[in-house]
Amino acid sequence: MIYLDHSATTKPSADVMKAFVQANERYYANPASLHEMGVEVNILLNRSREQIAGLIHTEPEHVIFTSGGSESNNFLIKGIARANTHRGKHIIVSSIEHASVLETARALEKEGFHVDYVDVDKHGIVDLNNLKAKLTKDTVVVSIMHVNNEIGAIQPIEEIAKIVHEGSRAFYHVDAVQSFGKLPVYFNGELGPDAISVSGHKINGLKGTGIAALRKRTTIEAIIHGGGQEMGLRSGTVAVPQDVAIAKAARLAEQHRTENVQQYIKWRNAIHTFLDPMEDVYVLSSNEGAPHIVSCSIRGIKGEVIVNAMQRQGVIVSTSSACHSKDNQISHVVQAVGVPDGFARGVIRISFGQGLTDADIEKFKEAFSNVVKQVRGEIKTHEMA
Amino acid sequence: MKWHEILVRYGEITTKGRNRNQFINRLRDNLKSTFKDLEGMKIRLERDRLYINSPSDDDMNALIERLPDVFGIQSFSPVAECATDLEAMKALGKEIVADLNYEGKSFKVNVKRSYKKFELETYELNRVIASHVLSELPGMTVEMKNPDIELRVEVREEATYMSVDVIPGAAGLPVGSNGKALLLLSGGIDSPVAAYLMMKRGVTVEAIHFFSPPFTSDQSLGKVKELSQIVSKFGGKIRLHVIPFTEIQQTIQQAVPKNVTMTTTRRLMMQVADLVREETKCKALVTGENLGQVASQTLDSLAAINAVTNTPILRPLITYDKLEIIDIAQKIGTYETSIIPFEDCCTVFTPANPKTKPRIEKMEYYESFTDFDEMIAKAVRNREIHDFPKKEVKADFDDLL
């Protein structure tokens, strides 16, 4: 099987697995314990935290280990919003955020927050004027992602940060789950975001690992209360082996970023060139977007059908987002960018990651050509075997 | 090239009379040892200021980050240099301001013309540089009082210096310019702050810690070492004397009534410390004691403890509120380490009802039945000595991370 669904999740790298196993075998004590075994594990935990802090340019005490991107998004948005109601109760998100941001915003609406949604253009880029117009003195959180998980649109986060910081007292949160390891992701003082979410399993780390990071000391409320671990912001015995794993995965992702991205760009552009002239195929992603995501649709064909047909030829792709690939709805992202008639239900996503080769990409093209011929009736399905 | 050098303004040193050079030389030596890791750093002394420069940009940035921790510095400014020539000044002024987030900010040029023969007068020069910067970099307003950006220009014959930032220093006096004292370091919040405050007044600090294995763990000693390491960044070296205290402490439990064991413990600590002080040629003892914080810190109690020696016992925190102390501890970075909960020798045998008003005569009477002198001498003899700052020994987790 050729796995082209790295935006859904990736295979943990051997190095990460090894570190995880070793950490479990040797450093299983509780880092909060006073005895020397605990103290040693605590040093390891601190080192992991320092490593992450160094990669994203913040202080170690502003790095909180979580269970993943969704928890980080929930914690950062709810935590900052709830702790800063004295500033106001207004939240702004883009209309193409990940569900863990949109649903968090909706949950806060029930607590009395007012949520506004920023429009995007047909490439999925937020309308900065629209954002500017929606900022008010009551805005506490603006959450606009870095790279969209369905179509790969890259948001101009530094421009957004500038607008947010100049036009309000709001905190700017960036869901960087799809961009880490593909684009530079780091804090940059006033010029960049105030909070960042990262997920481990998207960067050849483990499921159940994540990072919520802050630029500076921020008034923020915990969601998980208890023994006061993670600077009091996320209680529960600290999962040090998981934290070691994400620290390692993040370092490796950053270390190999440039070389990986060069390949992804080559493949993405090649697939775009391949798809563009095809009749009845609409391409949502662009060469301006994220290097590792291609998104397209075949007229009149449901995404699920394409996924199945591709799979039969040994190529794994997905419908636009794994999260709601099963509920058969048109994705909110596809709705927001506005896709021509007949294409909305057929959006599929091809996403690259480590371990792929040029030959795999050729194989994809071949399989896709066959599927297109199949759906046009040019090839009968039973001839394909 | 961007920053040419860093201009450092002396703190109170400038007010010292004939000792002035001694203070300045001490500051220079402290800077040299604090920044030992920055090879190629050069220090040039002048009467009212000194200049530090380094050929490496990274080192210049490290200096800017670390200088605020060094005592004896009022403030410092990273300075750029150009020829004393109008065009060069205009260009450099623009280059410096362009680097800042200047749009929408208020601006002012402040020229000091020490070189009186320069072709333009102060006022003219002010105007020429300001109008050049303002026309090249639109979006700023002029503001004479409290501008956001003040470009300071100092015209001297040999060169012109420009800077925009005045970064406050740690003030105080260079560590070591006021002799040496021995600090009783417990591992709690107060004593590291006391060390810091003494250093701020130019005192070199040695530290003494009482260690009672097996009642107190290696980790609690580790914590004290860590604190010594942290505090040592404020000026030179700290020597830590670790006193084996178990025997004395156990003896005290049997020797005196329960409610005064703590007072006796303190009195014996002072005697031990005083012996070490003599050996190390320190001039005073320092404690983190604070009036009224705990039973041992009433005036009666302090008097009873004090009675064992004629050596001055300095208590820089005596009038501070706990919250004020915590503020400083957080600022100097010792708080997080201090609050790690390990038993120290003072908390191992805590009587239920310690006497808050011990009487000196009674204390002397209780203690007269036991000969502590030999035990004290032995403890001092068997002490361990550690020097800080220590090179960081990091556990080897590199393969994991």
Automatic annotation (TrEMBL), chain A:
Sample GO molecular function, one term: transaminase activity
One Pfam family here: Aminotran_5
Protein name: Aminotransferase class V
Residues covered by the Aminotransferase class V domain: 2-364
Species: Candidatus Kurthia intestinigallinarum
PANTHER family, per the entry: CYSTEINE DESULFURASE ISCS 2-RELATED, CYSTEINE DESULFURYLASE FAMILY MEMBER
Keywords: Aminotransferase, Pyridoxal phosphate, Transferase
InterPro entries to which the protein is assigned, alphabetical: Aminotrans_V_dom, Cysteine_dSase, PyrdxlP-dep_Trfase, PyrdxlP-dep_Trfase_major, PyrdxlP-dep_Trfase_small
Cofactor(s), names only, from the UniProt record: pyridoxal 5'-phosphate
TrEMBL record, chain B:
Keywords annotated in UniProt: ATP-binding, Cytoplasm, Nucleotide-binding, RNA-binding, Thiamine biosynthesis, Transferase, tRNA-binding
Keyword Metal-binding: no
Pathway: Cofactor biosynthesis; thiamine diphosphate biosynthesis
Domain of life (superkingdom): Bacteria
Subcellular locations according to the entry: Cytoplasm
Residues the record lists as binding ATP: 184-185, 209-210, 266, 288, 297
Biological processes per GO annotation: thiamine biosynthetic process; thiamine diphosphate biosynthetic process; thiazole biosynthetic process; tRNA 4-thiouridine biosynthesis
Catalytic activity: [ThiS sulfur-carrier protein]-C-terminal Gly-Gly-AMP + S-sulfanyl-L-cysteinyl-[cysteine desulfurase] + AH2 = [ThiS sulfur-carrier protein]-C-terminal-Gly-aminoethanethioate + L-cysteinyl-[cysteine desulfurase] + A + AMP + 2 H(+); [ThiI sulfur-carrier protein]-S-sulfanyl-L-cysteine + a uridine in tRNA + 2 reduced [2Fe-2S]-[ferredoxin] + ATP + H(+) = [ThiI sulfur-carrier protein]-L-cysteine + a 4-thiouridine in tRNA + 2 oxidized [2Fe-2S]-[ferredoxin] + AMP + diphosphate
The keyword Cytoplasm is assigned to this record: yes
GO molecular function: ATP binding; CCA tRNA nucleotidyltransferase activity; tRNA binding; tRNA-uracil-4 sulfurtransferase activity
Enzyme's top EC category: transferase
A GO term from the CC aspect: cytosol
Function per UniProt: Catalyzes the ATP-dependent transfer of a sulfur to tRNA to produce 4-thiouridine in position 8 of tRNAs, which functions as a near-UV photosensor. Also catalyzes the transfer of sulfur to the sulfur carrier protein ThiS, forming ThiS-thiocarboxylate. This is a step in the synthesis of thiazole, in the thiamine biosynthesis pathway. The sulfur is donated as persulfide by IscS.
NCBIfam families, alphabetized: tRNA uracil 4-sulfurtransferase ThiI
PANTHER family per UniProt: TRNA SULFURTRANSFERASE
Name of this protein: Probable tRNA sulfurtransferase
